[in-house]
Amino acid sequence: MTNRSKRTLVGWACAATLMALVGCGKKEEAAPAAAPAAAPAPAAAASAAEPLKAAWVLLGPIGDAGWTHAHYLGIKAVEAEFGDKLKATYVEKVPESADAERVLRDLAAQGNKIIFTTSFGYMEATVKVAAEFPDVKFEHATGYKLAPNLGVYDTRFYQDAYVSGMIAGAMTKSNVLGFVGSFPIPEVLRNINAYTLGAQTVNPKITTKVVWISTWFDPPKEAEAAQSLINAGADVLLQNTDSSAVLQTAEKNGKYAFGWDSDMSAIAPKAHLASNVVYWGPYYKKAIKDVMDGSWKSSRDVWGYKEGANGVIKIADAVPEAVKKKIEATDAGYKDGTIDPFMGPIVDNAGKERLPAGQMPTQEWKDKVDFYVKGVEGQVPTGK
Amino acid sequence: MNEVALLIAATLASGTPLALAGLGLLINEKAGILNLGAEGMMLVAAIAGFATAFTTGSDTLAFIAGAAAGGLLAACFGALVIWLNTNQYATGLAVSLFGYGFSAFVGVGYVGQKLSERVPFEVPGLAQLPFIGPALFRQHPMVYVTIALIGASMWFLYRSRGGLVLRAVGESPESAHALGYKVRWIRLLAVVAGGALCGLAGAFLSVAYAPLWVEGLTAGRGWIALALTTFATWRPLRVLFGAYLFGGVTMAQFALQGAGVNISSQLLAMLPYLSTVVVLALISRNPAWIRINMPASLGKPFHPGA
Asked: Which residue on chain B is closest to A225 by alpha carbon?
């Protein structure tokens, strides 16, 4: 997600410092033993036998059941794909600070040929270290700064949110949906809007209430925010935060909610309507293959349903058959490019037209979403 | 009206872990020991409690396990700072770091697991009252236990002989030693009791409040509890009110957002901390308030016979 730089756990500076200290635990994946290169072999043959070294810089622990876990599954997928042709290394819990730079420099010096930095807050560190190691390829998730040896990649999570909205629209009884947001940045606003627009395709009377918690990860606070939405009348919740607390709060209250980032169906069997997941594996496969072939180019890649990077899975049996049909059609539309959640007309909740009818949104338009669509209550907090 | 009742209910639940941990730290500090390890003790207790609840299905056992885990870690801390006279600040920070890492390590298998369903608790009879029922009497039992513990500690600290001895140890360990009290053992008891209360707070978060386990679950509440003891000028009842104030401001800002009130969420997120700072500043204006209540030997090691 964008702007992980704000991801200090609580406002307490000392707590944040501590967490930073706790981090930096470095782990090397037990990769298939690199065959000891036969010393006398000619250089060319030796390099052919040597596995390509790739490294990941991860924000959280791989066991966070969310953002970092999804990246970890991507790493597992490329390990399975390339076998002993690849030596994958990852470093968990790297703070988005000067430490990230040190970790990156370290990984580049160790001979990694491609390094993935998996959070927005690593942007400056990645740009800086990429300039120092022109022979190493860098890939930065959710960022926007490019360099000859630095590419960026992202996924279309809002495609998931739109599909979840359709389900929510069919399942709500109060016609009020709830959304627990982290920070009011374009990525999260896109998800809120897509969720609302999706719901309105099924049920035009839908309104969405939003509560911002100013953190990506604080399970008790996520639960509190969910509870306050339920108290205010919302009965189907979605969250753009990292734990399953919102889903569990819905379960406790006999309401509905969704999984986010990974499959959370087992956690709340009654409340769980579907899980919005992201698959980083396909992109990692492509990037590593390109490096192996020597065809890697710096580019900005935003992948979605079409590339197998997103999906809404484990849709509950309670969801009406007609909606499931509609979702299948939407999936197909995503794949052939005929459906986009933000296809015009898009009207914001102050009544202003943001995209004329029939027009497809450009990537640039999506990058700059800073409003709520019609049906979302309140105003985007601006800090002004 | 109904929303106000729900807001009050949410406030009580939100303040409970802070009140428990704050009370535990207060008892430590009254005995002259500053334990910065609250976050670590809460995390270790949270996973101990969650694992116990997951395996046995019993919340009571889970809270006992949480208190035991918190108390055990606190005992290790106590042995280090009381007998080996290690620096209390550094050792406390080490306990926090250790607790974070250790709980993450042993908790890996519990991430994404769910506890079996619980029947919501209601105070018989009172829960059906209009307004007051949903506001006050449909809480987790631990919410009421916390209030009882605050009351008990007020009696203990200020009305009982044991409390007097404990405070004497925190004010002037030399005098207490000269009178024949075993200063070190009394301090250890206070540290273990404080750890057990932090443990209850951690277990409440993972077993009743969230209820789930994930690395770093407490998300800084141990540090807030530490601030709370100063905020409350080392008075148990003020710890409780401080915790509710903190929980109340947090919940109120969520409720305002849910109601569509247009205020910057960043500003709202700041409010609980801002209110803490304001109250601290007000309290500090009167030095006597601090002097009367702050244990004179807080954070200082004690060397008998020195």
From this structure: B254
CB-defined contacts A:B, below 8 A: 148
Q: Quick one: A28 and A167 in the same domain? A: no
* β-pair partners for A150: A138, A147
Query: What pTM was computed for the model?
Result: 0.79
Subunit contact A223:B210, Cβ cutoff 8 A: yes
ipTM: 0.78
Cα gap B112→A138, rounded to integer Å: 32
Give, for B39, the enclosing helix (H) or strand (E): helix B38-56
| Domain hosting residue A339, numbered range | 157-278+310-367
Report the phi/psi class of residue B174: left, alpha or beta, with left for phi > 0 and alpha for psi in -120 to 50.
alpha
Do A171 and A194 belong to one domain?
yes
Helices B2-30 + B221-231 axis angle, to 10: 80
Nearest to A58 by CA among A110, A17, A103, A15: A103
pLDDT < 50: residue spans in chain A: 1-47, 384
Beta bridge partner(s), residue B57: none
User: Residue B87 belongs to a domain with what CATH number?
Assistant: 1.10.3470
Q: What is the largest CA-CA distance in chain A?
A: 75
Q: Which of A3, A207, A211 would best serve as a mutation to test chain B binding (most B beta carbons within 10 A)?
A: A211
Can you give the pLDDT at residue A283? 94
